[in-house]
Design goal:
With 169 residues, the chain is an alpha+beta fold. It has a domain at 2-17 and 32-87 and 123-161: Glutaredoxin. Helices cover 33% and strands 12% of the residues. Strands 2-1-3-4 form a four-stranded mixed β-sheet, sandwiched between helices. α1 packs across α3 (70-79). The relative contact order is 0.19.
């Protein structure tokens, strides 16, 4: 299936920064998950905690220190089913400073701004065998993980998986 090839390729390339090909990806590794993570972001921390709660230790990529290439970012956005505007952090001051809310700006121009200023990349992006998602809110990651019936609450105490092992939302 073509989308599976894209997802497998995205998982692999998110970690390697493009040094290897899709054929180098270990096949059948259902626990292989990468996350573009910002440790200062509560949603990103909660997403990482949910992955670990499911018994998976993901590859954590500090995308602020090691931003993706423009092509990789565009591929991740497309694989997640988003538009470039949906994947940009409009809340950042640099967004307004650069005038990125101008509807006349092309996706290419927005991608250039996101690569030049990685803080503009919305987070966290998670790459898993089940797909690629921008995990906002953090419980979106549960769609990519194997079932987990252990209770889980976010940092702020919001219940995500209840005492009966059921997803709350």
């Amino acid at each position: 299936m073509q989308s599976d090839k894209i997802h497998s390729s995205m998982i692999h390339s998110s970690m390697t920064q493009g040094d290897m090909t899709q054929n180098d990806m270990p096949h059948g590794d259902m626990a292989r998950i990468d996350i573009w993570h910002n440790p200062r972001c509560g949603t990103s921390r909660n997403t990482l905690a949910l992955i670990r709660h499911a018994g998976i230790e993901p590859t954590v990529i500090d995308y602020l220190a090691t931003p993706p290439t423009k092509a990789r970012l565009a591929d991740a956005i497309a694989a997640a089913g988003l538009s470039v505007r949906e994947a940009i952090r409009a809340k950042e001051a640099i967004h307004a400073e650069l005038g990125l809310d101008d509807a006349a700006l092309s996706d290419d121009a927005l991608l250039d701004a996101m690569i030049a200023h990685p803080v503009l990349i919305n987070r966290p992006f998670v790459f898993a065998p089940a797909g690629v998602r921008l995990c906002r809110p953090s419980e979106v990651v549960l769609d990519l993980l194997p079932p987990c019936d252990k209770p889980f609450s976010k940092e702020d105490g919001e219940v995500v998986i209840d005492a009966d092992g059921k997803r709350v939302r």
